[in-house]
Amino acid sequence: MLTYVIRRILILIPMLLTISFLVYTALELTPGDAVSALINPEVASRLSDAQFAELREAYGLNKPFIVRYGIWLSNVMQGNFGHSLAGGVPISTIFLDRLPATLELSLVALLFSTVLGCILGTYSALKRGSITDSSLTVVGMIGVSIPEFFFGLVALLIFALNLGWLPVGGRLLPGYETIWDRVPHIIMPAMVLSLMMTAGVMRYARSSMLDALTREFITTARSKGLPEWRINLLHGFRVALTPVIVLIGFRLPLLIGGSVIIEQVFQWPGIGNEFIGAVRGSDYPLVMMIALFSVFAVLMASLIIDVLTALIDPRVRLS
Amino acid sequence: MSSRSLNKKFDKILAREEAGELSSNSGSRALKKLLNNRLALVGLILFSIIIFTAVFAPLFTSADPMKINLRNLSQPPSADHWFGTDKTGRDVFARVLYGGRVSILVGLGSGIIAAIIGVLVGAYTGYKGGWLDVIALRVSELFMSFPQIILVLLLVSIIGQSLINLMIIFVLTGWGGMYRMARARMLSLREEEYVQALQSFGLSTATICYKHILPNALGPIMVNITLSTAAFILAEAGLSFLGLGVPASIPTWGNILNVAQEIRVLQNFWWMWLPVGATISLFVLSVNFIGDGLRDATDPSQQG
Amino acid sequence: MAGTQDVALSVKDLKTYFYTNNRCNKAVNGVSFEIRKGKTLCIVGESGCGKSVTASTIMQLLPKLSRIEQGQITYHSDDGDVNIEQLDRDGKEMRAIRGSEIAMIFQDPMTALNPVYTIGFQIGESLKYHTDLSRSEIRAKTIDLLRDMGISLPEMRVDDYPHSYSGGMRQRAMIAMAMSCNPKILIADEPTTALDVTIQSQIFELMEKLKTENETAIMLITHDMGVVAELADDVAVMYMGNIVEAGTVDQVLRYPVHPYTRALLESIPVLGRGRDQDIQPIAGSTPDPYDRPKGCQFAPRCKFRVDACDVMPDEVTYNETHRVMCWRYQEFLPDAE
Q1: Is the pTM of this model over 0.95?
Q2: What was the ipTM of the complex prediction?
């Protein structure tokens, strides 16, 4: 098992290196001085030309491209992501500030959509051909067809503006700290964000379950005289779960992407919100670092998914 | 289905079978199944209506989607303006119709171009193998390890906002899925026993490819085009909603929705954003219905 | 035939139809037979003749879009007769019979075992539902069963997953699973088709042993006449949903009277008879089940076809241990030749 995990991590490294190299190349090509990406621009603006040149030398910015990339990479690995062009804030500070909100939102949505999607999909498969099944199929289709942000807008109009049950946006009002103060804020964004994912997981869980139920070991289980619930859940669902988890892994980038727009709709103070601001303001260092980070997050998530599938499915461990 | 209704159904089939009314099926099974699928049919009709009204927009509205009318600001729906007017007095109905042209062009166009590139590259490298295959595979992995919207926004911030740029970006970020499908299809079909049987009969590679392999891959390709079209239309809407997609001067579904970022519009002027949001949803829904029907119809392993 | 107290299961005029794609396939169209205690009944036939469907019908393991049209399946248990066809498919009574009274093993042990559970878990499941054994007793019994089936180091292999077993071992594990609750009847649906010939004989030896030791009645489904000759006590030959000829193995193999049985026997090469033996393939192919011949199902391929064959012949029990479904069987009787 450990060798499996290590092997999976080793596969990721060349990918991350390639992408970081591309990101660095893009950083060099886009406007904005390389020095300013490394030191606080406020400080940089007060420097004389001579001092500036000295700094360039000190940071190795006159060295060949590939060396500069090496320096940048080691900086990044030590947590020095450079500075945002707007306000000169260190990007690492922005990450520390904004990341918890995004993680909170994505994890709640992920958990919700996985659980609900699996339950509905499995139920639908077991009741194949019933009215419940066909209505769930249609609802699922509608779920993947409505733009998430539009759904968010409608929810906002109904639950926040007209009914006044839930707050319009934000994550937490100043002075309110308990978990119960947070819950009303996260309900809408998390539900809206998980809509598409739930529908996707549901559809996939249904077909995966249907597929599992046609396998011969189901007949074997039935021939042993086991009760239906055990056949369906222990034998059917357990086997159907592996492809569903793999799909959730594939969909994670979508969830992360979806949170970019949803954070905007609900003024959720997360990384996605920051990203939109950076794209609008052509804050290239910040844009690049968030993009790089998102790739890192996706690759890590896929690693976790791989380990998870290996844990629940003995077949994967061997291959 | 309950066992009683199932039993009834069985009795009916049995009676017809005994009477000799049922005969072996003939004709295109795929087409029949597609038309038998009620949802796909609904999708097809909805899809045609929206495309038709967008393409022939001047037949349905005489209003100019770009014409600012300062004496007619933010009017609710009326006989003159079916969907009301926006904050600069432009007719929203006309904007939805004309905007549909651009949005559908971006979605369907990028979807088809991405599919063509993906299939060509995938089929070729999948068939050839070797270093070309390895490179193409790595490049596609590179693109696919980004969350799509982040990659799109990244590219938008680098090459700038325009209609053509957006389509280029969509194709760039969207070809990977189709490529991998086409490649995997090619690889597995090459190993299929029936293809190997054909090879052993001495059929030429080209004949096998075009007469036997390609038709088998056509179903999934069509399904994939519908899926990516739906995804691109949603992406365009999202990006333009953020003000980062198609330049605001061109009416598109996403750009019309852009106004809803303002709480005041959201709360008081529902006609400025609700109809267009519903239109996007309906269009994407129709595309998904068609895609689903196609999948069922072309997948020979599914019977019912 | 034998008295009823020797019979473990009798099937009478059984019809099972399939309703897929809005058509009706009369997969089993009126079959009757008996499985005797401690004996092996072999059901032979080409693929698609309905032999597997017959087995699934007895176990009530039919797919959703099918049903038993008519007939009786009577299980003669120690506590009296049970009419299986009247039980609810997945009801309590049926579940109590499955796995405990009647057990089944399948053609392909590769797909018949759940890949995500250990062998021990899957055997233990049967015991858990049909006995009152505790967890540790179940484990001990599972290990015993595996040992009885000839699996070496059962204490270790019990915690292995199916994919680390070879094909032959999986089938042994399947048999261990089936035999775990000492069933009265074992239904084996082509248990060796997916295995090597050498493994095949080991598996059959095992089944033979079980039969003599436990008095288990075995219903063996096969398409291999060699297997029949070796293992069967009784034989039923199926063609397109009917049993065309049935009887003791002696009677049927020695004095086949149905043209189909005769053709089947003529189509097999015999080991040791050399290259020059006269092997006769059966002409034509099995008809489309949706477009069946009017009368005798075999008529279109039959060398002895006459006009009478347009009407379905009745089943004739012409001596105590032999019955047949053919208009012209008399011409093939041993005395006639």
Answers
A1: no
A2: 0.84
